[in-house]
Amino acid sequence: MTTGNADYGRMEHCGRKRTTILGRMLMAVAVAFASLGATATPSAAGPWLGSIASFTATPPTVSSSDPFTTFRVELTEDMAGTPYEMYLYKDGAFLRRCDYQFSTCTTRVQVPFRSQTTLTVYVAESIDPVSDAPVGAVASASASATNSGWLGTLGITASYTNVATAPTPYSLIIASPSVPLNNTPYWTSIYAGTNQLCSRYQAGCSKNLLVQPGQVRSLTLSSRLQARVGRLAD
Predict the structure, then answer these.
(1) What span, in angstroms and rounded, lies between the C-alpha atoms of 198 and 204?
(2) Taking the complete model, does pTM exceed 0.85, yes or no?
(3) Can you name the residues that pair with 86 across neighbouring β-strands?
(4) Element holding 146 (H helix, E strand)
(5) Among 108, 121, 203, 232, which is least packed by CB within 10 angstroms?
(6) 129-145 burial, b if ≥16 CB within 10 A, otherwise e?
């Protein structure tokens, strides 16, 4: 009986030892998995070490016939993986954010008639929700474009310059701008003395003018300035 009890004690001791070893192995596996999970956690975004390589307006000078220009910014280093984005401001007011554009950004802008438009780009972390001011800006640059206005001239034609040779005493007078007056505040007018024959906003105009035999009618054509353009007949 004594031998049996001793054998049972040895078996119980061995069982406890195996349980302890197994527990240590499971703990080691758990620690290994925990360590693997920590390694897989994404690290914080790194800093951006670049700068603004260029910021231009193309073309830098526009006119009323095509008042649009394209602003383009280029960075020396891609911003992907950083907390920064590009923010554009037009004449001091927030215009847009360059979403998902990490090294270049372009935007098309209309320049007001006979005015200048300035865009400023900021490389920043965000913008203030109240003031729209850039927050955490690390770089900025500005570029401008100018609208030089209407660059055309006005012309005038008459179907007959001498009604003595015309089938009727009327002559069709047509005033035409060499460049369309679209996107301008201008209009075209024709005057016979102080009498306005026609006037059209942002376009040319025409009028049948009665000229009696032997009568001279002097015409004035106006847009930005009034200018004497000549007589119908002597």
Answers:
(1) 9
(2) no
(3) 123
(4) strand 139-147
(5) 108
(6) eeeeebeebbbebebeb
Both tokens assigned to 148 = 């030089």
Residue 131 DSSP symbol: T
In sequence order, the β-bridge partners of residue 206 are 174
The pLDDT score that the predictor gives to residue 160 is: 81
Q: Which contacts (CB < 8 Å, 24+ apart) does range 57-61 have?
A: 57/119, 57/143, 57/144, 57/145, 59/145, 60/144, 60/145, 60/146, 61/145, 61/146, 61/147, 61/148
> How does pLDDT run across 138-148, given as a tens digit for each residue?
999 999 999 99
Residue 176 half-sphere exposure toward CB, CA atoms < 13 A: 7
Beta strands in 16-98 (DSSP E): 52-58, 61-62, 68-75, 85-90, 93-97
Token code pair at residue 9: 């004690």
Most confident of 33-42, 123-132, 165-174: 123-132
* 3 state SS of 28: helix
Q: Which two tokens stand for residue 57?
A: 């307006």
Q: How many CB atoms lie within 10 A of CB 124?
A: 20
Task: Please tell me the distance from the alpha carbon of residue 152 to that of residue 167, in angstroms, as a whole number.
Answer: 34
